[in-house]
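Both lines are retained for reference:
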Amino acid sequence: MTKQDKPALILLDIQKGFEDIEYWGGHRNNPEAETNARKLLNFWRQNNLPIFHIQHCSTNPNSKLAEGNIGNDFQDIIKPNDGEQIIKKNVSSAFIGTDLKQQLDKSNIKKLIIVGLTTDHCISTTARMAGNYGYDTFVVSDATATFDIEGADGQKYSAEIIHETALASLHKEFATVIKTKELITKINI
């Protein structure tokens, strides 16, 4: 992958509401996800590559991610700069009910780099749709994270298991799963 490919960085739902770990399940994996997302954001900014900040705006007024709640704000570590694209969504996919696909196609962008929260929800859903749309899609494993979850039978599944299985179900089917350092190296070629 080269810089000439114009890969777009898609930063999904890195919002303050997800800082309340107890609210989302009591445990979260990959505490360095936002730091790694910031490394990628810095690289994209330095190389003038396309950046899209995706903001989940829950339709549930009681949600931490509802517009008007402080949890809807982007985390300070990845706050958008003036001129960077912000796309608001209210479902798991960044493509549903938004103009993301139109913007990518208008700019002739074929490669997508997806980071953010949460691996098994918005990351997975967006990556699946990107793959189905034909984009060359990369999900950065150490720049994504999720929370513990309870199954239908009441069994609790750890964030790490959910994260790893969500990534495994994407890899080589809808996307290439890659780490931050490896991705930056590939782009620098």
